Amino acid sequence: MKNVVIHQIVTYIFTEEQLRAYWEGQASVLPFDELTPKQYMELAEDMLEHSSSSQLKQHVLGGGWRTEEDARGKVIAEDESRETIHVEIVDTDAAAEPSRRMLIDRVREIACPHCSFTFYVRDAIGENSDWTCPSCSNGFHGAPSSTP
C-alpha cells in the first residue's frame, strides 16, 4: 500500500484507498494506478486543501484513525522543495527504513522546563533566548531543545 505522509507541524496521512476514492470522484480519464509520484503527492495535497476540519481528523497521525504504522515503510518519493511542508510516499508493504525525526526547516522545537509542553518557533534568533510557554505562561531562558 502506498500512503502519502504530509509533515507540517501536524502530520497527515492519506491512505491509498482514500486517495483512490478521491481520484475517482474527480472523474479523470487517467487511471489512478498510472499516476506519477508527483501527481500522487499533488492529489494528497489537493485532498488536504479541500477537506473540512472534521474530515481532516481521520488523517491526523495519532488522532485515533492513523497510527505510526501508517507512516512506516520504504520512502519511494518525497518533496522537500518548500520550507513549511514535507511530503513523501511511503510503501507500507515494504520493509521500513530507519525512522528519522521530521521537523520542518527553520522551525525550532522548544520544551518548557516548567510543564514539559513542547512548542515550535519559526526563525528563532539566538541560541540562548527568553521564552514564554504558550501553555503555562511561565517564562524561561535557554537554548531550544533541538534544531532541525
Describe the structure.
By secondary structure, the chain is an alpha+beta fold. The chain is 18% helix and 30% strand. It contains three helices and eight strands. The strands form three sheets. The chain has a four-stranded antiparallel β-sheet with strand order 2-1-4-3. Strand 1 and strand 2 (11-14) form a beta hairpin.
Give a quick rundown of the structure.
It is built from three helices and eight strands, in the order ββαααββββββ.
Total strands: 8
Into which percent range does the helicity of residues fall? 10-25%
Structure classification: alpha+beta
| Strand arrangement across the biggest beta sheet | 2-1-4-3
- Terminal Cα span: 29 Å
Global outline: elongated
Compressed to H and E, one letter per element, the order equals EEHHHEEEEEE
**Low-confidence spans: pLDDT under 50, at least 5 residues?**
none
**Main sheet record:** 4 strands, antiparallel
Overall mean pLDDT score? 84
Strand content: 25-35%
Radius of gyration over C-alpha positions, nearest whole angstrom: 18 Å
The number of helical segments is: 3
